[in-house]
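Quick start: read one record
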Amino acid sequence: MFTKLYLYYGYAKLKLCNQCKFHFILVLACVLANNVIADQGRNNAAASCTRNTGPIGISPAHWSDPSKTKMGLAKQGFNKINFVTRDGKSLVAHIYRPSRFNPKNGPIWFVMHGIKRNADDYIKTAAPIAERYQAFTIVIEFSRRHYPTSEDYTLGITTNGRANNRAAREGRYRRPENYLYNEIERVFEAIRLAFLGKQHGYYLFGHSAGAQFTHRMLTFVPCARVLGAVSANAGWYTLPEQGNNLSMPYNLRGSPSTDSDIKALLSAPLTLLLGTKDIKGPEIDSNVRKSSAAMAQGGNRLARGQNYFEIGQSLARSMNVCFGWQLVLEPGAGHNVKQVIESAGHLLFAVKSKPSCTSNQISEVITVYSG
């Protein structure tokens, strides 16, 4: 806004008389003041939201074919429904309704696919777990047609270009309600309304690129109605720090995040689920990012996940924040969603006790039931 004011003033200096310039600048000053007030209002609104209320400014998703969607949601088993994103893209959601799902209060589970965008494979993989826990399951297909690069899918917070350290000064960050992550909130709200349900929130699981989406959703949508999240085998992370030599997207320096957002992330119900055999580096697996900033997080996905957890734990202590994360190791699992999704389901739906929430907690690294 200050840049625009300067440019407009320069234009006025060249073209307008002194009296006209005075009025011109006065009008621009009023516009600037209104924008500052509006920004403060948005910040106050964001500060007032909670995981119970959900993010501010989110409306239910619009179904492409409401009558077909109604039938699809009511049908047991597999189906597909279509919806329109906030910015007008048409996406497919692959769904599975278990045989005894209770639409009034049954769990709703979002599963995030990986870089292959193979939502059909993911819904088939998730279905046995969904049936076991009677969880209505949704896999939104974020297609390459609409989201060509991995960061278009996993870092959808800019209007265009990468979410890097130039995005803020170039004015490319979206308004929070327009973040791609909030499509989960919008679809949840539309499904809950269709069910006439009383669900207060939903469960979230992502593997690989889907794990990147998952941990960044909790990072950038602090009031997301996530009841429990499992991020499994992410390739690299946006660290919850604002200092050192790094910046977006490798940490939060230059991001829209505030200290309050970081505190909300650190207290979120997030489980990092890591395969003990997911140890291939970029020299073997080309999908493991090899930039210097990514390599500083660790040489492979297992090391990077452990590093992310340790940084979060240390930061929670220094900020005196209730630390809600846990780190879970899956023995013998490599980079394969089928080797970790059973444990993810167990952690989300079967485990009743949660880690004690204390800022100086040293969470135990555990292995979980599988099978």
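The beta strands are 62-63, 77-84, 90-97, 108-112, 136-141, 202-207, 226-232, 270-275, 326-330, 366-367.
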